[in-house]
Amino acid sequence: SFRSVYDGEEHGRFMEKLEARIRNHDREIEKMCNFHYQGFVDSITELLKVRGEAQKLKNQVTDTNRKLQNEGKELIIAMEELKQCRLQQRNISATVDKLTLCLPVLEMYSKLREQMKSKRHYPALKTLEHLEHTYLPQVSHYRFCKIMVDNIPKLREEIKEVSMSDLKDFLESIRKHSDKIGETAMKQAQQQRNLDNIVSQHPRISGGKKSKKEVCASSDLEVKNTSPMSEQDSGILDVEDEDEDEEVPGAQDLVDFSPVYRCLHIYSVLGARETFENYYRKQRRKQARLVLQPPSNMHETLDGYRKYFNQIVGFFVVEDHILHTTQGLVNRAYIDELWEMALSKTIAALRTHSSYCSDPSLVLDLKNLIVLFADTLQGYGFPVNQLFDMLLEIRDQYSETLLKKWSGVFRNILDSDNYSPIPVTNEEIYKKIVGQFPFQDAELEKQPFPKKFPFSEFVPKVYNQIKEFIYACLKFSEDLHLSSTEVDDMIRKSTNLLLTRTLSNCLQNVIKRRNVGLTELVQIIINTTHLEKSCKFLEEFITNITNVLPETVHTTKLYGTTTFKDARHAAEEEIYTNLNQKIDQFLQLADYDWMAMEPSSKASDYLVDLIGFLRSTFAVFTHLPGDVDAHSTMSGKVAQTACMSACKHLSTSLMQLLLEAEVRQLTLGALQQFNLDVEECER
Question: Which class is domain 589-682?
Answer without folding.
Answer: mainly alpha
